[in-house]
Amino acid sequence: MMVIAAKMVRGKKVEIVSLLILVIVMAATAATVTYDHRALVIDGKRKILISGSIHYPRSTPEMWPDLIQKSKDGGLDVIETYVFWNGHEPEKNKYNFEGRYDLVKFVKLAAKAGLYVHLRIGPYACAEWNYGGFPVWLHFVPGIKFRTDNEPFKAEMQRFTAKIVDLMKQEKLYASQGGPIILSQIENEYGNIDSAYGAAGKSYMKWSASMALSLDTGVPWNMCQQGDAPDPIINTCNGFYCDQFTPNSNNKPKMWTENWSGWFLGFGEPTPYRPVEDLAFAVARFFQRGGTFQNYYMYHGGTNFERTSGGPLISTSYDYDAPIDEYGLLRQPKWGHLRDLHKAIKLCEDALIATDPEITSLGSNLEAAVYKTSSGSCAAFLANIGTQSDATVTFNGKSYRLPAWSVSILPDCKNVAFNTAKINSATESTAFARQSLKPDGGSSAELGSQWSHIKEPIGISEADALVKPGLLEQINTTADKSDYLWYSLRMDIKGDETFLDEGSKAVLHIQSIGQVVYAFINGKLAGSGNDRTNISLDIPINLVNGKNTIDLLSVTVGLANYGAFFDIIGAGITGPVSLNSAKTGSSMDLSSHQWTYQVGLKGEDTGLGSGDSSEWVSNSPLPTNQPLVWYKTTFDAPSGSEPVAIDFTGTGKGIAWVNGQSIGRYWPTSIARTDGCVGSCNYRGTYRNDKCLKNCGKPSQTLYHVPRSWIKPSGNTLVLLEEMGGDPTKISFATKHTGSNLCLKVSESHPAPVDTWTSDSKFSNRTSPVLSLKCPVSTQVISSIRFASFGTPTGSCGSFSHGRCSSARSLSVVQKACVGSRSCKVEVSTRVFGEPCHGVVKSLAVEAVCA
Ligand code: GAL
Fold it and tell me: Which UniProt keywords apply (predicted)?
């Protein structure tokens, strides 16, 4: 009896021990993610999370590790991305998870760098992405209505969402399985437009929520801009500011899924930018007011390769003025100032997660928030939300100077670690170095050989083209297989038609809902026009007695991605199209005639983009400034390892391929409107997407990114489809270089660098502000100091000048500290520079050259 009992106990012991081991192993890998009123809770601990959006198809897998590392170095904890349905399922049931669409690889790389992932499955994305991320085949599913309580739509949405969740589960990528995904999003900003869908919108939203929950990811779901998101889905905020946001339940944390770090560019638009002082202010205000999760949209914007840009008229660059620029280089001082901000916020983490802030007014437009824990830690945020004047406030018996529109962060409720308006990171210049492609006055830097060409036929070239009475809507006709749709008409004209003026002249009237139209009469370009949604053209033309052809080429530039019913807005020449007499007003409506249609161009069909065709013509003069010509050349890689761009100045509009990879639409002749730009943008005051614009009256985009990994050392092919007319020999290559110039201005009133922050007030009182410089490239050193002044220097980077007061030692002190080293630090104080003028707050401004 006893023996048996002992055996049993031993057996149980073994079982328990192995169970324990299993639990320990699981615990080491899997994490529980929940949330409460204050924050996301990971493994039982509330977290302050700084996140940034990087959309994987907007860069290449070769760029991902560097972008992710730069995100980590910038102080991010989380990478946020949408999932791009139309990229993953270009044809129904045919999936693509390769190359730039290798989502699993992207998520794993984030995990490898120690970052979490917020996966916004959508599957509606918006994102200035073609058709908002929906595959266009979805539009043709019988009976479908997008984003509403419609069975065919819901079935497809559920199928794709489940497909992604299953893939993530298979690869063990949810935190609940030991992976990095701590949060998933369903839908996107549906609350902004749901009223347009009436009651069916509400039931669709609820269905989306429960469908998502049923997929059982083991981590929370969020819906952004959805005030009525049902429990347990967290409703989150998107916007330039979210400090005033409160979630719809006291059990949910205050989360910000899109803090727009800049704004997107459109063809024909000036370039938006958002000053970092304002961006940092918005972030600090959010944490001041109880937020615990904040995401930059975008942290790296990247490029809309191929025909992925949304629209209409979204540019190929999706730079977004993000902290990491389109090419993957740090945008300074934006990146650096935000890194310092993140450090300051993290210094407050213990207090922030412990409690709600206690908010008090320190005067008009002046606000303090204090986070105090029972164990004695304390963090404070002091804000001046006035836009005009700096203020001095008294807080806990101490006096603090707060610049207008700024927040000071005090991780110990006493000492300022950071102020959003006081930048401690140097501006690093970036510049493009040109390399010409074509032998150009014997230039030694030439990269390319001669050009060859193929002329695209004008009008219908297919034998089995579609003939239909009336004008067809474009997307329904092309299914977005191409940007191009030919509308062609052959007609017999007699000399006595009433719409003809003398000499068989007439005016061709064309009405289109976008985005570009070229009109060819008897094979010759007669006129063209473009607009987002409304093109109205009146083109004087010459017809001939007898047979005439009218060939209209309608071109889309990115399908709409935002707004209620964006999927059925449509595009193309919807009419009327008519011939009119300028003299008598007599007119003939052609709209309901028998039109012949061709989807796409012949060269697209035959795959000219790949470069390999036997039809390229190289032994005759190159036709230039003619519409619809394909061009090809070969080139060697631009020297060095810097990012590469093509400058398309000289060409008109089209699509380009490098070694068969489409680098996107180019359109250097699309000129930004002339109004709305400001010389320098005052960061103080509420930011809007049209507040800070540059590049008015200039081409919206001349430089187009070609990822390095798409280029071989030599023998590369560049193919252009030039639709408008241009001279490809004017094209040049450019490499983007960073940091030959560093410049920074730090005042005596700046906080000491956040890295040196210590809560020991006696010590920190002795810590002066420091101006630090570091050449971005490891092989560089500071070779000279262009400008240095300790006193009251004026101007900004690139144009500093000495003010009324300047220490005579300025230059020599900075030279001694910096020249010859990659990095240097100079204390900003009279101890170092002497006293050039009593009773004023002095600054040290420096401009240095790295070589
Ligand atoms: C938001 C949307 C994003 C993006 C952004 C503008 O409304 O959720 O996907 O389109 O606007 O860049």
Answer: Glycosidase, Hydrolase, Signal
